[in-house]
Design goal:
Radius of gyration: 18 Å
EC number: 2.3.1.286
Order of helices and strands: EHHHHEHEEEHEHEHEEH
Distance between the termini: 14 Å
Structural class: alpha/beta
Protein name: Sir2 family NAD-dependent protein deacetylase
Enzyme class: transferase
Number of helices: 9
Keywords: Acyltransferase, Transferase
Helix content: 25-40%
Shape: globular
Strand order of the largest sheet: 3-2-1-7-8-9
Largest sheet: 6 strands, parallel
Amino acid sequence: MNTLYITGAGVSAASGIPTFRGEDGFWTIGSKNYTPMEMATRAMYQNNPREFLAWYYNRFAAYRNHGPNDVHHWLSDKNLITQNIDGLDGKAGNKNYIAIHGRLDQMTLFHEQGEAVKPLMTPWDSVDESRLHDSLFELFNIQNQAPELNHSFKPFVLLFDEYYTELYRITEAQQRMLNADKIVFMGTSFSVNITQMAIEIARSYDIPVEVVDPEPAHILHANVTYKKMNALDYIQSN
């Protein structure tokens, strides 16, 4: 059976990485001046890269050295699309997973969306926290207080005011959904576009769905099985 796994932040919680919408989540804790929904935008990066990069560094890069947990290892040989940017599936050995929202350990040339660019490794360990803002500007090649198209770099992360492009392997992700005999959602709140896309495909092609979550969100599809458990319990029962 060709099972496609689509994972969210709940899968990385056991690795000590906060979920997005829990009490300590990325989307509940912003900067001193902006909410997370305001911070995580292309517009903020363009208009206030100093605040954006400091927020991104403190809220995301702080977890760059965390390791995969048993769920990531179980998924290491599976057909996988993850919403997580933590890169833990790659650390666990999955060679061909799709990081549909980008990866924390990578950056790209700051480009017009849709242009063909390649992700590059981000040398986070070169950041000097004693001069954090200047050091981040140097890392992302920003002069004159604003990122410059086709010159500066940008974290490889899909922001709220951006859209899925081939940089994020969106066509391949859709094809994996279409080819699936079953789609298993693990640790996701169904609040992002990729999960809605998968549910629409599952409905259209009558692909059975499993939802793995201690408090699973109800989805509109006739062929759904709800597994009211966390991902670790699920893999131990399979």
